[in-house]
Amino acid sequence: MFVEFFLALKEARIPVTLREFLVLLEAMERKVVSFNVDDFYFLSRSSLVKDERNLDKFDQVFGSCFEGLEFGQDLFETE
Predict the structure, then answer these.
(1) Which residue has the higher pLDDT, 58 or 35?
(2) Residue 27 contacts residue 47 (beta carbons within 8 Å)
(3) What pLDDT is recorded for position 24?
(4) Is residue 54, in this structure, part of any structural domain at all?
(5) In terms of Cα–Cα distance, which of 69, 79, 15, 64 is closest to 39?
(6) How many domains does the chain have?
């Protein structure tokens, strides 16, 4: 799930580095935020987007990668 998200960001030409992505995953591992969609959205957006011109593209990629999950829903919740 997260690797596909990273690749989709790269495909959308959002300049995100592997190091930044690994820092995001480390923050998740250390439970900097809870594992719900809205917390992950804000953590990933603030960690990976360095230029406000890329915010709309980020939102589109995030929406397509996590389609079907509702805000507040646990990322690892199984249906």
Answers:
(1) 58
(2) yes
(3) 94
(4) yes
(5) 69
(6) 1
Report pTM.
0.80
User: How many C-beta neighbours within 10 Å does residue 44 have?
Assistant: 25
* H-assigned helices in the chain: 2-11, 18-29, 37-48, 55-65
- 59, β-bridge pairs: none
Task: Please check whether residue 27 lies inside any domain of the structure.
Answer: yes
Q: Hey, what amino acid is at 72?
A: G
pLDDT (0 to 100) of residue 34: 81
Nearest alpha carbon to residue 3 among 36, 25, 23: 25
For the stretch 37-79, pLDDT in tens is 888 999 999 999 999 999 999 999 999 998 876 665 566 554 4
Residues whose CB falls within 8 Å of the CB of residue 27, separated by 6 or more in sequence, listed in order: 33, 43, 47
Asked whether residue 71 is domain-assigned, the answer is no
